[in-house]
Write a structure and sequence with these properties.
The complex is a heterodimer. Chain A is mainly β. Helix content of chain A is 0%, strand content 53%. In chain B, the strands form two sheets. In chain B, strands 2, 4, 5, 8, 9 and 10 form a six-stranded mixed beta sheet that branches. In chain B, strands 1-3-7-6 form a four-stranded antiparallel beta sheet, with no helix packed on it. The termini of chain B are far apart. The chains are: A mainly beta, B mainly beta.
């Protein structure tokens, strides 16, 4: 049972435009969400996070939106740059009694120059 | 070191052999995680260590998998009698605290295991 889902395996966006990556989750106990970025042959690196007490968190070109009622979060990258081309994973945590981070299957973003 | 260090970076082994993968976390990080990523899949949780507490082994796929963490620092993931389906990138991560909502995980570059 996939508790964190990224239904788009890939996304292509023109440089300068907005990239929107989506993530859905099923467990209402999750209260902390993170986005990671992964380049080939490297480990994932942390990008941005959001706590369930917020509905938006912004860091430079990156903004994460959380819709708790819909159990949905999204990552917006504006403007997109070729260096943003990578695989993006969303992750969720916060179920009492466990410290697991549950990751989605990732979305491969390609930003076209 | 400055980051999470994993070794070997690549390992090719024959089916049925045992392998050991090593992880050296960031100094001072009390929590250590092992994940794996199979081809085309997401990151699959394997095991979690926090300080001196009993590890959370709930993600280990079979009893052929085991892990230990010595002295609260270095961890070794051991896979016995490897099978082809064990082929994956094994990622280690550490964090300052085991609390699930206080910060991100810092990942190593992974150990790519190929079982022939």
């Amino acid at each position: 049972d996939q508790q964190v889902k990224q239904n788009s395996p890939s996304l292509s966006v023109q440089e300068g435009r907005i990239s929107i990556l989506n993530c859905d989750y099923t467990n209402s106990m999750f209260d902390y969400f993170l986005w990671y970025k992964k380049y080939p042959a490297e480990g994932p690196t942390f990008l941005i996070s959001i706590s369930s007490i917020k509905d938006k968190n912004e860091d430079g070109r990156f903004t994460v939106f959380l819709n708790k009622s819909a159990k949905h979060l999204s990552l917006h990258i504006v403007p997109s740059q070729p260096g943003d081309s990578a695989v993006y994973f969303c992750a969720a945590s916060g179920v009492p009694g466990t410290y697991k981070y549950i990751f989605g299957t990732g979305t491969r973003l390609k930003v076209l120059a | 070191g400055a980051g999470v260090s994993q070794s070997p970076s690549n390992k090719v082994t024959e089916k049925g052999k045992d392998v050991e993968l090593r992880c050296d976390p960031i100094s001072g990080h009390t929590a250590l995680y092992w994940y794996r990523q199979s081809l085309g899949q997401g990151l699959e949780f394997l095991i979690y260590f926090q300080g001196n507490s009993a590890p959370d082994k709930s993600g280990l796929p079979s009893d052929r998998f085991s892990a230990e963490r010595t002295g609260g620092s270095v961890s070794t993931l051991t896979i016995q009698r490897t099978q082809q389906e064990d082929s994956a990138v094994y990622l280690c991560a550490s964090s300052l605290s085991g609390a699930a909502n206080t910060g991100e995980l810092f990942f190593g570059e992974g150990s790519r295991l190929t079982v022939l």
